[in-house]
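Re-running the complex after MR caught last week's input typo. The corrected sequence lines follow. Everything else is unchanged.
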Amino acid sequence: MIEVSNLTKYYGDFTAIEDLNFHVEKGEVLGFLGPNGAGKTTTMRILTGFMPPSDGTVKIAGYDVFSQSLEARRHVGYLPETVPLYPEMTVYAYLDFVAKLRGVDDREDHVWDVMDTCWIEDRADQLIGQLSKGYRQRVGLAQALIHNPDVLVLDEPTIGLDPKQIIEVRGLIKELGKEHTVILSTHILPEVSQICNRVIIINKGHLVAVDSPERLSARAEGAERVLLKLQQPAEETPALLGNIGGVTSVEPAGDNGFEITCDSATDCRPEIAAAAVQNGWGLLEMRALGASLEDVFLQLTAEEDTNEDEDEDAA
Amino acid sequence: MRNTFTIAQREIYAYFVSPIAYIVTAAFLVIGGYLFSMILYFSREATMRFIFGNLSFIFLLIAPMLTMRLLAEEHRSGTIELLLTSPVRDWEVVLGKFLASLTLFLAMISLTLVYPLVLFAFGHPDGGPILSGYLGLILAGAGYLSVGVFTSSLSRNQIVAAVLGIVLLLVLWLADAAGSFMGGSLSSILSYLSLSSHTSDLTRGVIDTKDVIYYLSLVVAFLFLSVRSLESRRWS
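Corrected-run output:
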């Protein structure tokens, strides 16, 4: 549905994104992650035909966003970072205007449908300028959905919403992902694991990872952490655990719990279990603490930074 | 073309809910009415040939205030992202905005129709020059508005857009003065480009094809520049 190849964008001397390659299949929800200034918004603006790329191509539903821009734009619904609203219009008049621009037939039905989907029916006759941030965000989402597009590009869709609305909007996006192709950018990492099938992490305009959220978490390298819960630990337990080969640190964690960090080369879990049984501490629970998406994100974006520094040194 | 009307329609709606259109219209009518009654009082002639030149110059000064919002505000508020990612061509956006401001201008002009009504009620003016004078006024107004649309495409600040518009229009207005100072072929070029040299005939009621073509090409040129300016801002 979306094919991005060798996408590059310069602003003067500044390289916003360089040589991005990825594709998104129909019915996928793709999360776009990256620190501020990584090039997320630039990429989204190119995908939606707002700005042309300096190099490379983007195809949406088979149409090139630059050379067949109008055709490509017909297949895209876009919620920009700053929600594009006219404060002097009512919600209904605004959505009707967007529907007209999008060439929607049966405008009235469509407008009421999207207002229903985005829970703004009760505000149909209110001026947009008087709406709260949460309602504005939802009007923005309604605007992106009005022509029932194949591809939805959402730049930080849950920003400014309250926790209940965030949950609702995430549910809505997940629902939309069944029939539409969705690309969303966000800062909120749990959001990605909740609603996305795939994640793209970019940093300083470079693509650093594309994978499912689970596989990304699993991919994190480095220390293994084990959580251990005992029924009756002895005073010398931390010291004894620390003596086991491969264990680098033992921290207390909650009631009778310990968080044990091992180096990744050896799996020290069998020895920990054996120690617990031999000493009669009463093993209640032992599990590996996988790296969170946060860890992966920090690791990948930091790695990129060090590589970059090395490149600069070499140059 | 349908998109052009959609955009023009929204823009006209925006004019009528914002105070600026009413303030500008009121100012135009107050100054216009004052001048009309003064001219009538002193000349005691049932003619409009003096007032058209004045109306056209007043509108030169206020046209940029009608157009300043059109594209600048879209850039400032981010709604430009909606327009430029919709299946709408850039020229349709520009033309729609221009038509909206032209509609408002025509509404303003139609309110000045009381002047000829007064003349017809109390005298026997010649209808032909009045009609052609109005045509000249509309052509000149369209020209000023297109310049305003262009300067609105240059900035995201409405005030900057308005000031640039007034300055550019005054420079065009005064171009023939600079021309006569320089002499030679440059003089005739500048004099042709000058707004004032084309306004005087038209507002006297003389329709010269040369002037009509001048104003129409002014509109086309500045709308074209606006489209290019809108396009170029996509790249940055």
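None of the earlier attempt is carried over here. The longest helix of chain B spans residues 49-77. The interface with chain A takes residues 3, 6-7, 10, 13-14, 17-18, 77-89, 234-236 of chain B (CB under 8 Å).
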